Fold this protein.
Amino acid sequence: MELIQYALDNLDLLLSRTIEHIALVGVAVGIATLTGVPIGIAITKNERLAKAVLYVASIIVTVPSIALFGIMIPVLSLIGQGIGYLPAVIAVLLYSQLPIIRNTYTAINNVDPALREAARGIGMSQNQRLRMVEIPLAVPVIMAGVRTAVVLNIGVMAIAAYIGAGGLGTFISRGISQSDPRQLILGALAVSLLAILVDYSLLALQKRLTPKGMERAAFAE
Amino acid sequence: MIRLDNLTKVFDTPKGAVTAADHITMEVPAGEICILLGPSGCGKTTTLKMINRIVRPTSGKVFIDGEDTTDLDTQELRRNIGYVIQQIGLFPNMTIEENIAVVPKLLGWDKAKYKERARELMRMIALEPDAFLKRYPSELSGGQQQRIGVARALAADPPVMLMDEPFGAIDPINRAVIQDEFLKMQQELKKTIMFVSHDIDEAIKMGDRIAIFRAGRLEQYSRPDELLANPKDDFVESFLGEDRALKRLNLVKVRDVVSDEIGTVSPGDTLETALAKIDDFGYQNSILVVNDRRQPVGLITRAQARTTKGYCRDHFQNVPATVSLDDDLRKVASLMFSNDTTWLPCVDESGRVCGQITQRAMTHHLGSRFRPSEEAASAPDLATKE
């Protein structure tokens, strides 16, 4: 009861921090998609490069977010951005690379070789093949990678409150420092709920972006 | 016309260089279907794919309609060659219409033109345009999909088509139907076609010429009848199978074997007359009864004629079967076997008796081509113009 009362009293704050949270993750994953998809497509041309890129991306994900923030403070302090918005976005950007690059790479690589041969055989250039056949077919799997990145990083972004990036994590960090369970639980619940809602709305988007003829194949399970 | 000049492909593998195609030289005249036939790994597919550079030739040249394709732009070349593959390869993200229109679009046709072309092709492959054009490949059966695959290859009306086991993944019943439809289309379209197959029966049915490959080499290149009658060596002979004489039955028409000399009686003749005619013509068992329009009405058997008195009209038996001039000998043989007879009357388009076909004539016709005649001995193994 107390929790609900607290949430209602601070509804404005809850709303603004949720929007802040979404904006942070949105910007970061948005940029990550713009970089990760082309990288994922580019590395399909070279298996050794692909292995190296995916290896590096995997290592980045193993770095705990708190440690990553710590590493970035001295580096970004050089431009006066040691804490706050910029390191938070960079961290999420880095964490998002693995799911997005890996899914793009896998999806493009898994396009049926017969389709690729048909596309070559009827005289499509490499770019036409990508644009007309390979990317449309890869969209569902690429979108699944974006979803993973978003959900993963809604959690990571909660920790970014410690470096002053704002967002829903602020409730959690204040809840801990002020020994206030109301703030702590509200923050935790809000983050979880947000992750679930965003995941479902992205799933809906993924279905919309899936080429029509593939719906049955892509969502058979 | 497609001409291959010393076309060679050497693959570098970890185990060393492998020659997949070894100086292949051959020519497919315009409007003909050439079947590349052989066991797997014989180089037939490699040879086919070098024509549209899916496989890059190590050396040698490809000429299409007399033009050396070596210096042509790869994409330009491919857009002017129809390509059909066994796995069909329709793009699942595109509608049937979009699939068919891919090449015309690449070639920059305007929308109205390629839409009309798609409808035209659908009618040609006997699929209702309104029912199918807006659907997706996953909604179609395998046979329908491969028809669309053929339509896509034909979309920009290329003079040349390459087909890589196009009907191999389709069930036998549908395969026969599609083969027949395709042959019918080809009679009008007159494309120059290279067609890879590993099925000797398909090759005999579809091919104007057959090229037998073995271990990267072209072993024999002949018309089907010539190939079956005169296999060049033991390999070709064993590849064709021990029943190769029977396979030739498909290729020979009644027209080629029929004898127009046939003794008949009319319903008004007496059985005595019939018996006399049976003896005159030297028939063993029976004689045909025809009406005044020379249509077959029945048979008088020798036994009947000898033991009974009366007129033919009262004593004839049914004619077991008749054949027409365009039937092939396979059908004739089958009818003879099923009716336990050694001859069948042959009728023309209007149903009039125009001759007869006998087992003896059939075996003689087939056998004469198997005997090493002077013609066969001098025939070059690369079939020349006939």
Remarks:
- Residues 373-386 of chain B have pLDDT under 50 and may be disordered.
- Chain B touches chain A at residues 52, 54, 74-80, 83, 85, 87-95, 102-103, 106, 136-139, 152-153, 162 (CB under 8 Å).
